[in-house]
Design brief:
The chain is an all-alpha fold. The chain contains 14 helices and no strands. Helix 5 packs across helix 10.
Length: 321
């Protein structure tokens, strides 16, 4: 338990441990890539809103227990900032997980990783930050990579195909809020707020569908209301809850142990891990165009992260599952 406290509490760690930070975030990406492949299994037995509500009901008490054991704290300095950040990132995860029921996981994750592009756009247009030509070129290359992975047909663009990109935009807003407003907040408090927000989304969705049931005999993942939980659903959701807590904890500690730009580069390993896990677990393959697109996304993300080091910023946290 002492080791866990030392690992999770920033004050107990040295300010710069790049190797440990890299290994930590790589482990987190490996875990996220694994557990998110099983959302399709969850979709067989329950809807999106029931999943988020149930997972939050499982996760929040575990996070509270961690705080009670001295691993982080639930105290919040600025409630409005934590609420805004939680709203943006939880909405992003609603769109991301919803898209997993319709799209291959590699495509959903590629859409989510438009977030750095939106961070650049928002920083330039809304926050009036100066952005050089190299970062603009990198953003355009990254966008081209996303198009190569998703390959949207102009005649077949649907909400499902746009959902991951919408998730990327909302996640970008959450990342900006984390770094600008929530840098001094406890990682445990941010994690608890995030899962609470997801639970609220789930409860609202369940309530709306109970009042206005979806038409048809077999509504899809998003339009499915509350159903009696099956053992399989509960098992997959427990795995998601525990895995997410571990992964986000590893990510947060990574950002506390090393430079933000350095750590964020390793987040792009998720694109590789999800493709590998999808192949191992489901036999899904990625064609050469999509592989090239993934390479462009990773390359542009690395350039954006490393070029961003010239502008000092507070430390934030990375991908959330």
């Amino acid at each position: 338990m002492t080791a866990a406290r030392a690992w999770f509490n920033k004050a107990d760690m040295s300010p710069a441990r790049p190797i440990a930070a890299a290994l930590s975030i790589l482990a987190a990406m490996l875990l996220i890539g694994f557990i998110d492949n099983f959302v399709v299994n969850i979709a067989e037995d329950a809807g999106l809103w029931q999943f988020h509500l149930t997972r939050s009901v499982m996760a929040v008490p575990l996070i509270v227990a961690l705080a009670w054991l001295g691993i982080g704290t639930l105290r919040v300095a600025r409630w409005w900032a934590v609420a805004a950040r939680s709203l943006a990132i939880s909405a992003a995860m609603v769109l991301y997980f919803g898209s997993l029921a319709f799209l291959p996981i590699s495509e959903a994750v590629a859409g989510l990783f438009t977030a750095p592009l939106f961070v650049l756009l928002v920083s330039t247009l809304a926050l009036r930050e100066r952005v050089g030509a190299v970062r603009i070129l990198a953003a355009l290359v990254g966008f081209a990579g996303v198009v190569m992975v998703l390959r949207p047909d102009a005649g077949a663009v649907t909400l499902a195909t746009l959902a991951p990109v919408g998730a990327g935009f909302l996640y970008a807003l959450g990342a900006i809020a984390t770094r600008r407003w929530c840098a001094t907040e406890s990682a445990t408090a941010l994690l608890a707020a995030f899962f609470t927000a997801l639970g609220i989304w789930g409860a609202l969705g369940v309530a709306v569908l109970a009042a206005f049931p979806a038409a048809g005999e077999a509504p899809g993942f998003i339009l499915r209301g509350w159903e009696a939980p099956t053992p399989a659903f509960l098992g997959w959701t427990v795995m998601q809850a525990v895995g997410s807590i571990i992964a986000v904890g590893l990510i947060t500690r990574s950002y506390q142990m090393a430079d933000t730009a350095f750590v964020s580069v390793f987040e792009y390993s998720l694109l590789v891990f999800v493709a590998v896990w999808a192949w191992v677990l489901r036999g899904e393959t990625v064609d050469s165009w999509a592989m090239l697109g993934i390479g462009l996304i990773i390359g542009s993300g690395c350039v954006l992260a490393l070029r961003g080091r010239v502008a000092p910023e507070a430390q934030g946290d990375g991908a959330v599952s």
